[in-house]
Amino acid sequence: MQEVYEFLKAAGTYYLGTSEDGQPRVRPFGTIHIFEDRLYIQTGKVKAVSHQLHRNPRLEICAMHEGKWLRVEASAVEDDRREARVSMLEAYPSLQAMYSPDDGNTEVWYLRNATATFYSFTEPPRTVKF
Predict the structure, then answer these.
(1) Nearest to 63 by CA among 93, 32, 89, 90
(2) Do the Cβ atoms of 78 and 112 come closer than 8 Å?
(3) Cβ distance 64 to 55 under 8 Å?
(4) If pLDDT is split at 50, 70 and 90, which confidence band does 48 have?
(5) Per-residue model confidence as pLDDT tens digits over 27-36
(6) What's the CA dihedral at 36, 129, 4, 67 to 10 degrees?
(7) Helices (H), strands (E): how many in the chain?
(8) Pick from 54, 50, 55: which is nearest to 22 by CA?
(9) pTM score
(10) What is the set of domains in the chain, with CATH numbers?
């Protein structure tokens, strides 16, 4: 999990895919955080991605960095604890202008049953699970 976290942090932007009525939905994301030995993402409850994850928690993440790319398949689990939201916002101070732990909008999700595969054109794929 640590290697996946470091790759996504280094990439800066990754692409999060969800599904809505059978239609894939992909958007750029930037929040990735480890809290209590779990890998977390953050969004707002008012956003379409939140509604999609509540209906179908299966997601995929894809990122590219320095000629290598990563694909993560997982289920998202909402963590509604204040301390999880605080930890995320402390890791991303720039979000504090838009979100706060008690605003009723900030939402954090951790990845469960994740399969992450690292790819490149020069090495065989390598998979890790967490």
Answers:
(1) 32
(2) no
(3) no
(4) very high
(5) 999 999 999 9
(6) 180
(7) 3, 8
(8) 55
(9) 0.96
(10) 2-129 (2.30.110.10)
- Give how far Cα 92 sits from Cα of 2, 57, 59, 78, 117, Å: 18, 24, 22, 18, 26
Residue in 80, 125, 68, 73 with CA at minimum distance from that of residue 106: 80
CA distance 48 to 25: 9
Q: How far is the C-alpha of 47 from the C-alpha of 74, rounded, in Å?
A: 20
Is beta strand 126-129 parallel, antiparallel or unpaired with respect to 58-65?
unpaired
Both structure tokens of 30: 């930037």
* Residues belonging to the chain: 130
